[in-house]
Recover the amino acids of this structure.
């Protein structure tokens, strides 16, 4: 019952807000024209003006909620690392994605092998430098 009370209160606030919005959109007085044409005659009715205002407000609400949905869903997809694979008529096939991922794995493996080779060569270079230093010392002491 503790969780149902805030939901019911929120729903009541929403219903009251919609009712106040609908009441506020109802036209109080309509301007009269000297020579009304067809559009003036159609919009001379308070119900028509009220319906048009409600339509505009509801269209704005739909656009706002649609925009929020797009932003939130894009953020969630980015957080879950689900990348865009199709946009309109353009689409990346699953085989192309698989090939690219395969190439990525292959190049990662090649890089790791090369990194091991670099470590090995660095160690051999350090040993060579030590050996050269020892030989330098031996040559220097033997000519003294």
């Amino acid at each position: 019952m503790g969780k149902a009370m805030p939901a019911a209160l929120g729903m009541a606030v929403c219903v009251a807000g919609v009712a106040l919005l609908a009441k506020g959109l109802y036209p109080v007085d309509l301007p009269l024209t000297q020579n009304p044409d067809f559009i003036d005659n159609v919009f001379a009715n308070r119900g028509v003006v009220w319906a048009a205002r409600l339509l505009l407000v509801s269209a704005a609400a739909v656009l706002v909620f649609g925009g929020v949905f797009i932003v939130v869903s894009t953020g969630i997809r980015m957080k879950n690392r689900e990348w865009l694979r199709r946009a309109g008529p353009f689409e990346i096939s699953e085989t192309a994605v698989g090939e690219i991922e395969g190439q990525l794995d292959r190049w990662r493996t090649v890089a790791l092998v090369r990194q091991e080779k670099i470590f090995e060569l660095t160690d051999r270079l350090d040993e060579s430098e030590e050996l050269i230093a020892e030989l330098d010392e031996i040559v220097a002491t033997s000519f003294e």
Q: What stands out?
A: The two ends are 99 Å apart (CA to CA). Residues 8 and 14 are 10 Å apart (CA to CA). The mean pLDDT is 84. Helices lie at 4-25, 38-42, 46-79, 94-142.
